[in-house]
Write a structure and sequence with these properties.
It is a single chain. By secondary structure, the protein is mostly helical. The protein is about 70% helix and about 0% strand. It contains ten helices and two strands; from the N terminus they run ββαααααααααα. It has helices at about 15-20, 25-40, 50-90, 100-105, 110-120, 125-145, 150-155, 160-170, 175-185, 185-195; strands spanning about 5, 10. It has a two-stranded antiparallel ribbon with strand order 1-2. A hairpin with a 5-residue loop joins strand 1 and strand 2 (about 10). Helix 2 (about 25-40) packs antiparallel against helix 3 and helix 6 (about 125-145) crosses helix 9. The longest helix has about 45 residues, at about 50-90. Residues about 15-20 have low confidence and may be disordered.
């Protein structure tokens, strides 16, 4: 199909104009919709209702892409800050992090912060903190001789029994069992590690 200006002449947008607009995805699909619209208008008699249907479908597709682009551009603005926060958590998993304070670091409300964090990292901030502690716990069990009570204290837990329960929930094995396996069976340890979702 061809674009016409107000005088009925064929019109092609210049590259200067195109360069100011974002790239449209699924171009072939949109082109097919517009071609169906043109065919309906070229038939005798005109199939006006059908043409409107195809044209509206093309507009809906373009507007939906625009909505997606705006949504992800909002998240992209916060991605670097979220990564900074995650690096801080992984470096110091033992600290007691307040969601309100983390949200302030991103100049956001707690609810908005949680929503953006989960969209980018696929887990809530609270779960990310726990997973970071669990990864640190596995490293301490693997590379240190600290008693489990001391490891729980190092990671900011006041109750070693609660630490042990949480470790088992996230790792499907107790801290004692994990330490025994690391001492004896590297193959089994690798299998356990494959099934654990570490913080990104």
């Amino acid at each position: 199909f061809k674009l016409k200006d107000s005088n009925g002449n064929t019109w092609r947008p210049s590259f200067d104009i195109l360069s100011r607009h974002r790239v449209i995805k699924r171009v072939t699909f949109i082109t097919n919709l517009l071609e169906n619209c043109a065919k309906a208008l070229n038939e005798k008699p005109y199939k006006y209702t059908e043409a409107v249907h195809w044209f509206q479908s093309a507009l809906i597709e373009i507007f939906s892409q625009n909505s997606e682009a705006k949504t992800w551009s909002i998240y992209a603005e916060h991605e670097n800050k979220i990564d900074e926060i995650c690096s801080m958590i992984k470096k110091h998993p033992e600290k007691r992090y307040s969601i309100a304070i983390l949200a302030e670091m991103m100049h956001s409300t707690p609810d908005h912060f949680i929503r953006i964090f989960k969209t980018i990292k696929r887990v809530t901030p609270g779960e990310y903190i726990i997973r970071s502690r669990m990864k640190a716990a596995r490293n301490l069990l693997l590379f240190s001789h600290h008693p489990i009570a001391q490891i729980s204290e190092i990671l900011g837990y006041n109750d070693s029994y609660f630490f042990s329960r949480q470790f088992k929930i996230f790792n499907n094995i107790s801290p004692v069992g994990y330490r025994k396996i690391t001492d004896k069976n590297q193959t089994l340890l690798n299998q356990i590690e494959e099934n654990i979702s570490d913080p990104r």
